[in-house]
Amino acid sequence: MNIHEYQAKQVLREFGVPVARGIPAFTVAEAIKAAKELPGPVYVVKAQIHAGGRGKAGGVKVVKSIEDVEKEAQRMLGLTLVTKQTGPAGKEVRRLYVEDGSSIEKEFYLSALVDRETSKIAFVASTEGGMDIEQVAHDTPEKIVQIVVDPATGIMPHHGRALAQTLGLTGDLAKQAGKLIEQLYTAFVAKDMAMLEINPLVITKDQKLLCLDAKIGFDSNALYRHPDIVELRDLTEEDEKEIEASKFDLNYITLDGTIGCMVNGAGLAMATMDIIKLYGEAPANFLDVGGSATKERVAAAFKIITADKAVKGILVNIFGGIMKCDVIAEGVVAAVKDVGLKVPLVVRLEGTNVDKGKEIINNSGLDVISADDLDDAAKKIVDAVKKLKAA
Ligand code: ADP
Ligand code: MG
């Protein structure tokens, strides 16, 4: 789960992390009020969306008067911001953050994540902050340094020294770096973060380290331990289909292809997506209906898939182990009766109660293309979608 910059800064503040003063605003009037509460004379108006790259897209503006705060707030609220990270559809700005303007001497990059290879929390630091870190990683990978923390020791003074050295900091700034990395690590572990990114971390003109941007992603599996974090969830930033799926305990992720998939078991779902690709189309979603899905859950899943305008064909691929094929068939038939079917549907059933399942589909009067195995099913749905595209 992701949160907004202003919320991330609030979380970090609890751990003593140095961040600029700022106030969130949902309306232009609130933005003006926020600016009046800040010392000025430099303010920064920042669009709050769950994506970075706002600066280059006009979503972060440094201004020098309350009138300009008003102007920028007016311009940004309701705007659909398209940044490198939003995708071409962009994201609508519904919240702003009005922040104290800082005088920046230098910008750095600092992030932390769970490194799956070493099973440790790793910090990633670079002197090349503020810009496209992906570009830096590609062009000059030697400018990016990893500092790995062993969970057995936790954060140690040598991690702080490594960070200071990486960023070329000495004296008091090196001390600040040591304190900062400790605070960030503590916050990361305490709140079960999956990713924390400070870009830029800056040195201000008065020689203080300050986190000017903050992005946090939390481990969804640990959210039950953090009701305070769950409260920060902004559903308007999330995919509607994924929210709907989560209500039914479905493992659903939206993808950008054309073939809607309904599969049971994550492994079979992955294999199904692979074979669709192999035959030249792409999946519109990942969906694992689970081992113990009911007719209602199957119907809900089917409705989520059919509601997706990108879906040009549907492939139901079920191996009935614990799951019974007739339950799947009933769910599909019920959903189609409810919402109709406007795209080709290929069904491949195998396993427990397969004959009953096929019978239900065959007697339903639905226009279903049945398939014998996974290969056959993938070929049939890809062919059907290609035909539809050509027509
Ligand atoms: P994004 O990463 O989405 O572009 P940032 O929060 O990193 O957004 O802001 C972009 C740039 O704007 C920063 O690299 C920094 O130069 C400048 N900036 C952001 N916040 C402030 C601030 N409080 N004071 C001065 N400059 C800022
Ligand atoms: Mg940034």
Automatic annotation (TrEMBL):
<dbReference type="GO" id="GO:0000287">
    <property type="term" value="F:magnesium ion binding"/>
</dbReference>
<dbReference type="GO" id="GO:0050074">
    <property type="term" value="F:malate-CoA ligase activity"/>
</dbReference>
<feature type="binding site">
    <location>
        <position position="264"/>
    </location>
    <ligand>
        <name>substrate</name>
    </ligand>
</feature>
<comment type="similarity">
    <text>Belongs to the succinate/malate CoA ligase beta subunit family.</text>
</comment>
<dbReference type="InterPro" id="IPR017866">
    <property type="entry name" value="Succ-CoA_synthase_bsu_CS"/>
</dbReference>
<keyword id="KW-0816">Tricarboxylic acid cycle</keyword>
<comment type="function">
    <text>Succinyl-CoA synthetase functions in the citric acid cycle (TCA), coupling the hydrolysis of succinyl-CoA to the synthesis of either ATP or GTP and thus represents the only step of substrate-level phosphorylation in the TCA. The beta subunit provides nucleotide specificity of the enzyme and binds the substrate succinate, while the binding sites for coenzyme A and phosphate are found in the alpha subunit.</text>
</comment>
<feature type="binding site">
    <location>
        <begin position="321"/>
        <end position="323"/>
    </location>
    <ligand>
        <name>substrate</name>
    </ligand>
</feature>
<dbReference type="InterPro" id="IPR016102">
    <property type="entry name" value="Succinyl-CoA_synth-like"/>
</dbReference>
<dbReference type="GO" id="GO:0005524">
    <property type="term" value="F:ATP binding"/>
</dbReference>
<dbReference type="Pfam" id="PF08442">
    <property type="entry name" value="ATP-grasp_2"/>
</dbReference>
<keyword id="KW-0067">ATP-binding</keyword>
<keyword id="KW-0479">Metal-binding</keyword>
<keyword id="KW-0547">Nucleotide-binding</keyword>
<dbReference type="GO" id="GO:0006099">
    <property type="term" value="P:tricarboxylic acid cycle"/>
</dbReference>
<dbReference type="InterPro" id="IPR011761">
    <property type="entry name" value="ATP-grasp"/>
</dbReference>
<dbReference type="InterPro" id="IPR005811">
    <property type="entry name" value="SUCC_ACL_C"/>
</dbReference>
<feature type="domain" description="ATP-grasp">
    <location>
        <begin position="9"/>
        <end position="244"/>
    </location>
</feature>
<feature type="binding site">
    <location>
        <begin position="53"/>
        <end position="55"/>
    </location>
    <ligand>
        <name>ATP</name>
    </ligand>
</feature>
<dbReference type="GO" id="GO:0042709">
    <property type="term" value="C:succinate-CoA ligase complex"/>
</dbReference>
<feature type="binding site">
    <location>
        <position position="199"/>
    </location>
    <ligand>
        <name>Mg(2+)</name>
    </ligand>
</feature>
<dbReference type="InterPro" id="IPR005809">
    <property type="entry name" value="Succ_CoA_ligase-like_bsu"/>
</dbReference>
<comment type="subunit">
    <text>Heterotetramer of two alpha and two beta subunits.</text>
</comment>
<dbReference type="GO" id="GO:0006104">
    <property type="term" value="P:succinyl-CoA metabolic process"/>
</dbReference>
<feature type="binding site">
    <location>
        <position position="46"/>
    </location>
    <ligand>
        <name>ATP</name>
    </ligand>
</feature>
<dbReference type="Pfam" id="PF00549">
    <property type="entry name" value="Ligase_CoA"/>
</dbReference>
<comment type="pathway">
    <text>Carbohydrate metabolism; tricarboxylic acid cycle; succinate from succinyl-CoA (ligase route): step 1/1.</text>
</comment>
<comment type="pathway">
    <text>One-carbon metabolism; formaldehyde assimilation via serine pathway.</text>
</comment>
<keyword id="KW-0460">Magnesium</keyword>
<protein>
    <recommendedName>
        <fullName>Succinate--CoA ligase [ADP-forming] subunit beta</fullName>
        <ecNumber>6.2.1.5</ecNumber>
    </recommendedName>
</protein>
<feature type="binding site">
    <location>
        <position position="99"/>
    </location>
    <ligand>
        <name>ATP</name>
    </ligand>
</feature>
<dbReference type="GO" id="GO:0005829">
    <property type="term" value="C:cytosol"/>
</dbReference>
<feature type="binding site">
    <location>
        <position position="107"/>
    </location>
    <ligand>
        <name>ATP</name>
    </ligand>
</feature>
<feature type="binding site">
    <location>
        <position position="213"/>
    </location>
    <ligand>
        <name>Mg(2+)</name>
    </ligand>
</feature>
<dbReference type="InterPro" id="IPR013815">
    <property type="entry name" value="ATP_grasp_subdomain_1"/>
</dbReference>
<dbReference type="GO" id="GO:0004776">
    <property type="term" value="F:succinate-CoA ligase (GDP-forming) activity"/>
</dbReference>
<dbReference type="GO" id="GO:0004775">
    <property type="term" value="F:succinate-CoA ligase (ADP-forming) activity"/>
</dbReference>
<keyword id="KW-0436">Ligase</keyword>
<dbReference type="InterPro" id="IPR013650">
    <property type="entry name" value="ATP-grasp_succ-CoA_synth-type"/>
</dbReference>
<feature type="binding site">
    <location>
        <position position="102"/>
    </location>
    <ligand>
        <name>ATP</name>
    </ligand>
</feature>
